[in-house]
Amino acid sequence: MSTQIPVGFSEDFTTEVRLLLQQNDSRFGMAVNRRSFVGKDAKAVEQIGAVVAQKRTTRHADTPLIDTPHDARWVYPVDYEFADLIDQQDELRAIASFESSYVQNAANAMRRAQDDEIIDSFFSDTTKTGEDAGSTTDWATFVSVNTDHLIATGSVGMSVAKLRAAKKAFLAAEVDIDSDPLYVGIGAEQHDDLLGETLATSLDYTTRPVLVEGRISSFMGFNFIDSQRLPLASTTRGCPAFAKSGMLLGVWNDVTGKVSERDDKSYATQVYAKTTIGATRLEEKKVVEILCTE
Length: 294
Prior knowledge:
Number of strands: 17
CATH superfamily: phage-related protein like domain
Radius of gyration: 24 Å
Helix content: 10-25%
CATH topology: phage-related protein like fold
Structural class: alpha+beta
Largest sheet: 7 strands, mixed
Shape: flat
Number of domains: 1
CATH class: Alpha Beta
């Protein structure tokens, strides 16, 4: 039972219940691939690597046999749940009804959990690969070799120069930016950084306005996702730039809930919600880590 409900007991005429400020939807859920799975784990995708054509130099030559490289990515489910109780006595003492607000609050928590799983998988060092998930792909190792996929550029915040570097990395990796939507996750500080850049806000440098009521939603082919849940290490925030096809949200059980009576809790009303999800990075070259100082 929530111990906070007595705050809502009525000594005056209070009939409105408001949820405190919070993220109430999944910001990244629609920006990544989404697939349904069953079982204790799932092969997210079978991967076929590039091959090299062999030039034919003689007549009646033997047919060349060239091995096609194969790989796979795996995703694992994680369970999230929430429950809280509303006593009958609490409902009698409060003019306002809490039930619908508790349901909405629970749903919001589940959607934020989706974002947390996706955010954790952008730069994961434990991404499972291989036909039997026997290998681990380490992000730190990847960027140590592919240095253009880790953008720091000194102790500064988000900038047009960093976005240009991210776009360059995608083009160099042959990401099809014409058909594969590109996104960048940014926090409030990074959004403010871009507001201070003339190149990002002036119509002198773009064919269409990027500012709508003081907010930048897209620029240079990137769609921005505002999130305050991105990892912050000391004064450095890691912002993911990514192609939609490079990330996956696996759904074993979407957000579901139930409001029921608990006879073991003096017939209190229980609000319950759950979800089972997992996320993974599908291709390293479709993700860029942009380090921004705050």
